[in-house]
């Protein structure tokens, strides 16, 4: 198997040359590069070697508790001890206070080295953001230091058996109990619902405080700690799901039985509060897609360069990479990784600038759609390039495909994001994203006439959909057209560099 090599140079090139991160007034590019390179060494030496063994061993449910694969506990202790869990947490709570561009680079490298472990640890920044945006000072002081130090990890508990994408069907209920609340219900598909890495877990639980007829307006968000002053909270794991991939990440069915909890934010505003965490998670999932695309290309290109297959026209031996069809697939893999990474970085730079919020809301689902499908496509191409060996576990390509496949499903299925793009994305703030997105594309390559024509056609389509009463049949095609416009802009900029 090709050893994992973190794509540090590609990440820094994308941040600077495509996304223009260097123009941000408060971004310390030298410090960021140093941090990214330092984590790359940790990922290559500690995290990546556990990826394939963890996939083979998987997690186990023993006496109601989850046991992680061998070696993961020691790796997590080093991760937490070195301060990586608190990278973006404010310094006053024991974190490093770093920017989200640096954190995104770290997250991509982490996912490329060991997606399953990143899944278990990666919800902490979103939980911290949710506490900062919606939590009381007492809640922030109680939980953020634990999360930043790695003493605690966090989960996001939304899904139920009859309430997947339709959260209005949630039945888990919360009732007042003195100064706090009690939660009863079942949650499924909870990543890291239990593990033996951290001392505690902070579950963010969406539960009903109103009547079923209230729909999503009757949902509130709660902090439900695994440990309380009285001991272990009344939360149990009833099952670990047997999945296609991510075997070293425990996906749990959870039972909350009169579990103690604290309301975060306002009653009935749970979905708005949860979206703080979900929006962070969606860009994180997009970066998982980027990581898989880059890793698939890395393995495939190394294999194709070393595998001899036939002869060149001059009679000399030919490597697999010398064949035009293989080169075509390798080039497509590379393009998928580069373009999807650039899309994510453009969105992250817009977040840091804070000047075009409607554009950020528009770019987030676009990144999730394009980057996750890029990861799956690149892995599929990798299997084809390696041929029979790609279908075996030996080279790791099949694990990349298995692990990448979920990214188009969780944190909102891609079809739902396409619909969001064509509805809320186009109508937010009076349709501000339409002009802003077209402007962003042309800012990347101002002299590209084809791009200008594409941007004009895209704006016409966007305005038409923004005024339509039903866009469901057009949402997928519009998402493809939108991604194609931004991809064209990114490729044009690359050619000009």
Task: Tell me what the structure shows.
This protein is α+β, with helices and mostly antiparallel strands and 497 residues long. It has three domains: 8-58 and 69-146, Butyryl-Coa Dehydrogenase, subunit A, domain 1; 152-268, Beta Barrel (Butyryl-CoA Dehydrogenase, subunit A, domain 2), CATH 2.40.110.20; 272-496, Butyryl-CoA Dehydrogenase, subunit A, domain 3 (Up-down Bundle). Helix content is 54%, strand content 15%. It has helices at residues 8-18, 29-47, 51-57, 72-81, 100-121, 124-134, 137-149, 270-306, 324-353, 357-386, 388-391, 397-405, 414-422, 424-427, 432-444, 449-466, 475-496, and strands spanning 60-62, 65-67, 152-157, 173-177, 180-191, 200-208, 219-225, 227-228, 231-232, 235-240, 251-264, 308-311, 317-319. The strands form four sheets. Strands 3, 4, 5, 6, 7, 10 and 11 form a seven-stranded mixed sheet that branches. It has a two-stranded antiparallel sheet with strand order 1-2. A hairpin with a 2-residue loop joins strand 4 (173-177) and strand 5 (180-191). The model has no long low-confidence stretch (mean pLDDT 95).
**Overall domain count:** 3
Low-confidence stretches: none
Q: What fold name goes in the CATH topology slot of the largest domain?
A: Butyryl-CoA Dehydrogenase, subunit A, domain 3
Distance between the termini: 34 Å
The SSE string, one letter per element, is HHHEEHHHHEEEEEEEEEHEEHHHHHHHHH
From the spread of the alpha carbons, the general shape counts as globular
The largest sheet is:
7 strands, mixed
Average pLDDT, rounded to a whole number, is 95
What structural category do the secondary elements indicate? alpha+beta
CATH C-level class of the largest domain = Mainly Alpha
CATH architect. name of the largest domain: Up-down Bundle
**How many DSSP H or I helices?**
17
The proportion of strand residues reads 15-25%
Total strands: 13
CATH superfamily annotation of the largest domain: Butyryl-CoA Dehydrogenase, subunit A, domain 3
């Amino acid at each position: 198997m090709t050893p994992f090599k973190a794509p540090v140079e590609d990440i820094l090139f994308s941040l600077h040359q495509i996304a223009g991160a260097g123009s941000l007034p408060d971004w310390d590019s030298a410090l960021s590069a140093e941090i990214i390179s330092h984590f790359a060494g940790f990922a290559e030496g500690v995290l990546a070697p556990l990826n394939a063994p963890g996939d083979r061993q998987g997690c186990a449910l023993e006496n109601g508790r989850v046991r992680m694969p061998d070696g993961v506990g020691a790796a997590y202790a080093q991760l937490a001890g070195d301060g990586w869990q608190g990278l973006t947490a404010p310094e006053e709570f024991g974190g490093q206070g770093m920017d989200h561009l640096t954190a995104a680079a770290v997250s991509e490298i982490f996912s490329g080295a060991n997606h399953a472990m990143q899944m278990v640890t990666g919800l902490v920044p979103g939980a911290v953001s949710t506490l900062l945006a919606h939590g009381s000072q007492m809640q922030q002081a109680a939980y953020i230091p634990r999360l930043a130090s790695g003493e605690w990890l966090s989960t996001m508990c939304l899904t139920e058996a009859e309430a997947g994408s339709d959260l209005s069907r949630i039945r888990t209920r919360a009732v007042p109990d003195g100064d706090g609340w009690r939660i009863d219900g079942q949650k499924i598909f909870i990543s890291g619902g239990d593990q033996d890495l951290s001392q505690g877990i902070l579950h963010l639980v969406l539960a009903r405080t109103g009547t079923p007829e209230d729909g999503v307006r009757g949902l509130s968000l709660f902090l439900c700690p695994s440990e309380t002053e009285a001991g272990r909270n009344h939360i149990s794991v009833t099952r670990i799901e047997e999945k296609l991939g991510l075997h070293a990440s425990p996906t749990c069915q959870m039972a909350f039985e009169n579990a103690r909890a604290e309301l975060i934010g306002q009653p009935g505003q749970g979905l708005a509060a949860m979206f703080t965490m979900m929006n962070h998670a969606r860009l994180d999932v997009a970066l998982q897609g980027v990581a898989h695309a880059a890793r698939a290309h890395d393995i495939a290109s190394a294999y194709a360069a070393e595998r001899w297959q036939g002869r060149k026209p001059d009679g000399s031996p030919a490597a697999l990479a010398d064949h035009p069809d293989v080169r075509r697939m390798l080039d497509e893999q590379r393009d998928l990784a580069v373009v999807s990474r650039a899309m994510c970085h453009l969105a992250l730079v817009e977040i840091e600038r804070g000047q075009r919020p409607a554009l950020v809301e528009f770019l987030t689902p676009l990144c999730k759609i394009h980057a996750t499908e890029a990861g799956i496509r690149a892995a599929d191409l990798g299997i084809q390039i390696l041929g029979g060996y790609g279908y075996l576990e030996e080279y790791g390509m099949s694990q990349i495909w298995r692990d990448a496949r979920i990214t188009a499903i969780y944190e909102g299925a891609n079809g739902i994001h396409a619909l969001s793009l064509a509805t809320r994305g186009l109508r937010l703030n009076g349709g501000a994203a339409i002009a802003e997105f077209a402007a962003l594309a042309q800012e990347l390559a101002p002299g590209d006439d084809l791009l200008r024509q594409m941007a004009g056609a895209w704006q016409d389509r966007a305005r038409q959909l923004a005024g339509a009463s039903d866009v469901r049949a057009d949402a997928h095609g519009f998402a493809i057209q939108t991604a194609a416009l931004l991809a064209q802009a990114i490729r044009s900029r690359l050619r000009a560099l």
